[in-house]
Amino acid sequence: MIYSQKKATLISILIILLVLSPVVENWASKPKDNFPLSYYPMFSKKRKATYGLYYFVGYDSAQNRYKISYKIAGTGGFNQVRRQIRKAARSGRADIITQEVAERVVQKKGHPYSKLERIELVKGYYHLEKYFSKQDTLPVYERKLAYYKIEKR
């Protein structure tokens, strides 16, 4: 199909306007993100300096700290398990899920799981910019939500 220069220019302008149309959402009071034309709020949205995250940690008799893998904490991928933990913590089931994770830890063999004496569910707050630039990967603040003491085997 052959287009005249005038038709090609008109089609090009229409396509450019269509692609740029989501930009007006930046000034809307309630912006809408529609696929495939998106203004990408996940990149432009203002975020707090710190981000809270729920996770499990274990402690041995010398109070050495070990992060518990999400694979032990729940079923599914990383983000799915993270949402399961958050939902349990917010719905008042923190003690129950912590006990369930502790029971799974007891069944694990090898370092560090065989040495752990207690499991804690914590919410850690991380400074995202420092964390991802590798300047500081430690939490700014941590809040213990639940713990479970593992009985000696």
What keyword list fits this structure?
four-stranded antiparallel β-sheet; 6 helices; alpha+beta; 37% helix; 153 residues; elongated
Could you provide a short overview of the structure?
With 153 residues, the protein is α+β, with helices and mostly antiparallel strands. Helix content is 37%, strand content 21%.
**What characterizes the major β-sheet?**
4 strands, antiparallel
How many angstroms does the end-to-end distance come to?
78 Å
* Form type: elongated
Query: What is the overall number of helices?
Result: 6
What class would the helix/strand composition place it in? alpha+beta
Radius of gyration: 24 Å
Describe this protein's structure:
By secondary structure, the protein is α+β, with helices and mostly antiparallel strands. The chain is 37% helix and 21% strand. It contains 6 helices and 4 strands; from the N terminus they run ααββαααβαβ. Strands 2-1-3-4 form a 4-stranded antiparallel β-sheet. A hairpin with a 5-residue loop joins strand 1 and strand 2 (65-67). The protein is elongated, with a radius of gyration of 24 Å. The model has no long low-confidence stretch (mean pLDDT 88).
